[in-house]
Amino acid sequence: MSKKSSCVFLLLFFGIHISINQQLAKAQILTPTNPPQTICPAQLKTTIDAVTNRPLFSRVRWGILVQNLGSNQTLYSQDAEKYFTPASNTKILTTAAALQQLGENYRFRTSIYRGSNNFLYVVGRGDPSLTDTQLTILAKQLKQKGINQIQHLVVDDRYIRGDLVPSSWQWEDIYSDYGAPVGSFILNQNTFNFKLLPQTLGKTALISWTDANEARQWRVINQSVTTAQNQPTSINVTRELSGNVLRIQGQLAANSQPYLVTLPVVDPNYYFLRRFRSALAAEKITLGKTSVGINTNNQQEVAAVQSPPLSQLLIETNQNSNNLYAEALLRALAIKKPVLPNQTTADAALEVLKTTLTQMGVNSTGYALVDGSGLSRKNLISPEALVQTLQAIEKSPQASVFRASLSVAGVSGTLKNRFQNTPAAEIVQAKTGTLTGAISLSGYMNLPKYGPLVFSIIVNQTEQPASIVRKAMDEIVVSLAQLQRCQ
Prior knowledge:
It contains 13 helices and 20 strands. It is α+β, with helices and mostly antiparallel strands. It comes from Pelatocladus maniniholoensis HA4357-MV3.
C-alpha cells in the first residue's frame, strides 16, 4: 500500500448502510401494455420524443444516439455530442481498449520467487480473479518443490502504483463491497463477509464468520436486536478503516434468513498474507515472518498461477458490472507504456486507453475519464463517443468476444430481468449503468425486420427513482425493437 493510501485509511471512519431497501433499485421487468406494433424510421423521432418529453422528465437531461451498425447513419439523436455522467457505461471504453491492446488470451500472473537470501517473494500483478483456490494451488506447488518451511515471506506490491481507492470516488461507495480497493494484490475481490442470524425475540443477532482469521481482526460491538416475525429487516454496520472496531446496529426478524454482510478489506497486502498463511498451513508448510517489501532480485520462479483469459474476465466485468475487474483491466493497460516516476499506474493506463480508442476512430474530445469502472462522478462521456466505440469494436477481429461480454436482454447479466416478454428480449446486447441521478444503457440490437443497430441512452440529473427511469428507457428500446423498413 502506498504511503498516501495508508494516510487516507488512517484518517477515515466510515459507515456502511446495508438495508433490505437496496432491493428496490433492481431493474424492473417491463411488461408491454399494448400488442407489439411496427414502427417506420420516419416515426422514430415522434415515438422517442413522446417518452423523453413527459412532464415527470421536464428537468431531466437525455442523451440519445441511434445509428445503423456499420454505416454510421443516424436514425435518432438528442444531445448526443454533449457530456454526461456515464456511470458503468464507462466500462465499454475500458473493456474495448483492453481487448484491443491486450488481446483475448491475455492472463494476469501471480508469481512466487526464491531470493538469493532464501526468502520467498510473492509478486502480485493485479489479478482480480485471484481466490483462496489459487492460494491452495500456489501452496501445493511449493510443497512439490520440497519447500516445507518458509523463513520469511515477502509480498511485493510495486506492480500497481497509486492510491488503492481513486480519490474521486465518493465515501458512500468505498464503504461498500462494490468499491473495494484495487492494487497489486486482489484476493477474493478484496472483500470479507459474515452472516447475521436471528435469535429469540429481543436477543442480539448471532454473527457467523466465513473466515475465523478475519474475525480475530475485529472488536465487535453488536447492538443489533432480533424482532418479531415478519418485521422489516434493517441492518447498519459501521467500522474504522484503520482501526479494529466493528459496530452492528439495527434489527433482524426472528423468521428471517441469514443476512449476509460483505465489506471491503482494510489492507489488501496483509489480507493476502493472512489467507496465504492458512493455505500454507493446510499443506503443512510452516511460515515464519511475513512482511511487505521489495524483491530486488527476481531470481527463480518457484510457483505461479494465472487468471482465466481476458475473454472470460470481460464477461464478469460487463455482464455483472464488476467495478474491481474494470479497474484491474484498466491498470493492466499500463504494461503498454512506461509509468513515469511521479505517475500512478491508473494515470498511465488512461493515456494508453485514450491512444487506443483514438486509433480505433473514437474522437478523444467525446470523453474525459478518471477511472475505468464509472464509479467516479468526474467521468464524462457523450453518447456519440459510446456509439463510436461500439461501432469501432464491431469492425475489429475481437467483435464476437466483445459482444459475448455484454448482457443479453431478458437472458443474462444486469439485463436478465429486463425486457422479458417484450420484442426486445434476446435481440439486445448492452451495458447498463447506474449511479444516483445517472442511468445509462448502450449496446447493440439485432432487428429481424430492419437490420442491426447501435445505440446509447443516458439520463442525468434526475430525481426520479432508478426504476422509473429504466422503465422509460426500456420503452424506447422496445420501440427500436419494433423498427422495420417501410416503403
